[in-house]
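Lab notebook, bench 4. We co-purified these components, and the gel suggests they stay together. Before we commit to crystallization screens, I want a quick structural picture of the whole thing.
Request: model the full complex, all chains together.
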Amino acid sequence: MKKRLVLSTMTIALVASLVGGATFASWTASSSVANNTFSTDTMTFSAVSGTVAGLYPGTAQNLTIHVTNPKPYPITVDAASLGAVVWGQSTVTLHTPTDADLAFGSIGSVTIPAHTAAGDGANDVTIPVTLNGAAGDDYQGNSAQVTLSLHASAF
Amino acid sequence: MVKQILKSVILLGLVGSLIGGATFATWTASTSVSGNIANTTTLTVEAKRDNGDIYPGPMFYTQDSEGGPGDVTGYNSTGLWYPGRTVERQLFLLNTNNQRIPIQMTGIKATLSGLNSGTPAYNEFIQKMMFKVKFGALDVTEQLPLSSFLLGVPIAPNPALIILKGGESLYQIDATLSSTANDNVQGISPVIDFTITVTQA
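Here is the predicted assembly.
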């Protein structure tokens, strides 16, 4: 009698484990939301040239450049590199040939606000410009056209 | 008396033989009912954007003309993307089954077109375009790069995500172009299809 009871209990447990541990398939379906387009912008900005007056050897004056941002996000102008320097009177000579005529200081980091409904964002970027202390009389009353490349980042 | 006893014994014996050893025939018959149909249903779901219009898609489009018709609240184009930008859009999931089958979103996968695989723009974009799926306050996925969604992102079972027959759930997808996205992704127009997988819950 005891043996039968044990056998019955084992059978019930086995059936219960089979029922409890059965694997049920779950059906799946899918649906798509297509053609999401993520066109990215091409960053641009513009700058209006400025003028520095009254330079003389060894002194610095600020060159102010007006920068305009047409984009809906702010940008930061953080660097300027010097391009061509063309003097109106081409006979200018420095004390030593290796000296630069004009030295441009750091512009730091200037934020140009984003374009809004009111219009483009704008700010002035100021760059200190120094005429070489060795610049001779050739530079008196002279004028140079300077090309500067500004660098900005969007974030 | 003896005769009566003898009759009784014989009768009992006859009855006993009938009960104990007689063979009764049990007639059987069978019939079949053919043509019973056990149609299985097909699990169905519909995923649509919800810009107030419950439209099949897309959720994200940069220009109004790409958004399709039917936007009752006005076109909801994102405009162009730039580093650091996040845009949220709504995804509507509808349990369209005609049976009482509860379903749950169990995966989301993306496919990308408009960029050639392996190019600098492609490699940068799939790492810097990020997505996060939310359901109310619940983060269904972490913020993951597109590269993960291209492989398919599984979604763990969660009772909160179960949609009953005829029911609907409104998900939110946050798209972010990382602030570290470099110049390789300037001026591109990638297109992403999202495929939502649901499973019988």
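The helical segments of chain B are 2-21, 120-128, 146-151. Worth comparing against the SEC data before the next meeting. Residues 25-200 of chain B form one domain.
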